[in-house]
Structures are given as C-alpha cells and as structure tokens.
C-alpha cells in the first residue's frame, strides 16, 4: 500500500512539474500582454538572453509580437540585439514591420546583414505593403503609399 501511495505522489508531482509554463512561455505571455512589471521580473529571474525551445530570445519575441516599450526594456536590460536563433533569424528580421522597433535595434548595433538559413536578411524581409522605403536613409516610415484613388484625385483632368 505504501508503495502505491508513494508512486501516486511521485506521479502527481511530476505531472504538476511538466504542466508549469517554462520561462520562454512566460516571456511570451508577458510580451504579448504588454506587461512590463512581469517582463522585468522575468528578466531578473532568467536573464534577458534566455532562449526558448525554438531558440528565440525574449527580444525576438518582443520584436515580433510586443510593443516598442518591451523592446526598449529588453535592450536596456542588456539583451543582445545581434543574437540569432538556430535558423539564423534575428530580432531585426522580426521587427521590419515596425519602424520604431527597427530604429531601436539598429541603435543597439543589430546586424542589418544577418542571413537566415533561408537566405533572408532583415532588408529582404517582407514589409507591409502600406509602407515604402524612406528617402532619408533610415528604416521605413509609417506614412502609407498613396492609394490608387488618391493618385487619381491628384492627376489633372484633361
């Protein structure tokens, strides 16, 4: 009887341990929920460059799914802007759809020429169709391309 109860306690303990979210999931939740206090405590607990099961750092998650403030917080906490996942993807690859995040990462010495296993660089990563490359030479501005109707409205009628 004693052996059965010890086995049951051991099984319940192992089951509970495997159900607790790992650090990568907790970082992901804090970043997606835009929860800076939780993000700060996770950084203190696990560090800013902890990798999840897919090799993604919290900075990569923030660049892809978080706010610019989350990116700023991670960079201020010492996150490596040049870190790459197992597939060669960096935070800058993920951030190309947000000019603010791109500027923050480039100011932190992110590698704009990092090549992923698929041969993509952050410069060749897709950008939203509503944005166009800047003429000023830095990043991509947030002003949209003129729509076909707006272009037609600007043309003089003959």
Would you mind describing this structure in some detail?
The chain is mainly alpha-helical and 158 residues long. It has a single domain, classed as Ankyrin repeat-containing domain (Serine Threonine Protein Phosphatase 5, Tetratricopeptide repeat). The chain is built from eight helices and no strands. The chain has helices at 2-19, 23-32, 36-46, 58-65, 68-76, 91-95, 99-107, 148-154. Helix 2 (23-32) packs parallel to helix 4 (58-65) and helix 4 runs antiparallel to helix 5 (68-76). The longest helix has 18 residues, at 2-19. The chain is globular and about 65 Å long. The chain starts with a helix and ends with a helix.
What is this structure's SSE topology?
Elements: H1 2-19, H2 23-32, H3 36-46, H4 58-65, H5 68-76, H6 91-95, H7 99-107, H8 148-154
Summary, kept brief:
The chain is an all-alpha fold. It has helices spanning 2-19, 23-32, 36-46, 58-65, 68-76, 91-95, 99-107, 148-154. Helix 4 packs antiparallel against helix 5 (68-76) and helix 5 packs parallel to helix 7.
